[in-house]
Each structure stands twice: as C-alpha cells, then as structure tokens.
Amino acid sequence: MIIVYLSIAVVVGSLIYLAISAVKTFKDTKPVMDRITRTTAMIQAKTEQVKTETDKLALTQKEITSDVQYKKEAIQQTISNAKQTPKAFTDVWHSLKGRKPSRKFSTRRRMGNIL
Fold first, then answer.
1. On the CB side of 23, how many CA atoms lie within 13 Å of its CA?
2. Which has the least CB within 10 A, 23, 32, 64, 98?
3. pLDDT digits (tens, 9 = 90+) for 56-99
4. What is the largest CA-CA distance in the chain?
C-alpha cells in the first residue's frame, strides 16, 4: 500500500513540476512573443506603406503617360500643319498674283524672276 501512496505522490509531484515548468516557460517566452508581434506589426505597416507608395507611383505613371501622349499628339498635329503650310501659302500666293502654280521654278530663277 505504501508503494501505491508513493506512486500517487510521485505522479502529483511530477504534475506540479510540469505546471511550474509550463508557467516558467510561458513567462520566458512572453517577451519573445511580444517582440515577434511588434515586429510583425511593424513589417505589416511597412508593407502597407510600400503598397500605398506603389499605388501612388502607378497613378503618377498613368498621368505622365497620358500627358506624354497628349503632348505627342499636339506636336504631331503641329508638324502636320507646318508641313501643309508651304503648299497652302504658295496656293494663296499664286491666286493673289493671278497665276497658276508652276513646277518649273528653276527657269524663273535663271531669268531673275524669283517668287
């Protein structure tokens, strides 16, 4: 019977030791877990900040692309109009002088008659 009581005492003692070890381990790991939680929160905040900056950059890139396209079209239109100007000018010039446009400019230059 003494063996039974000693066995029960050993089991109870080991359970008490297990509880004490568990509480001590919990107390030891709590600061580490808090540090991990803070680090995770900081990383999450940085990730959100990077995501926000990425969204801003994407919006800015889209605006810049749109602006470049608009300016490109404006310049192309200006160049096109500039290319058409000499023909329109010569047509107006010839209509004011009462002559038809001539392709033989070289003979007039030789004769001294310059437009």
1. 5
2. 98
3. 999 999 999 999 999 999 999 998 887 877 777 777 877 888 76
4. 144
Instruction: Tell me the pTM.
Output: 0.49
Number of domains in the chain: 1
Cα–Cα dist 15/113, whole Å: 121
Q: Measured between alpha carbons, how far is 97 from 45 in angstroms, rounded to an integer?
A: 77
Distance CA(113)–CA(24), nearest Å, equals 111
* Spatial distance between the Cα atoms of 64 and 70, rounded to a whole number of angstroms: 10
Burial status of residue 64 (CB atoms within 10 A of its CB: 0-12, 13-18, 19 or more): exposed
- List, for residues 50-64, the tens digit of each pLDDT value: 999 999 999 999 999
- Average pLDDT taken over every residue of the chain: 86
Q: Which domain holds residue 44?
A: 16-96
Estimate to the nearest angstrom the gap between the alpha carbon of 49 and the chain centroid.
Answer: 13
Whether 65 is in a domain gets the answer yes
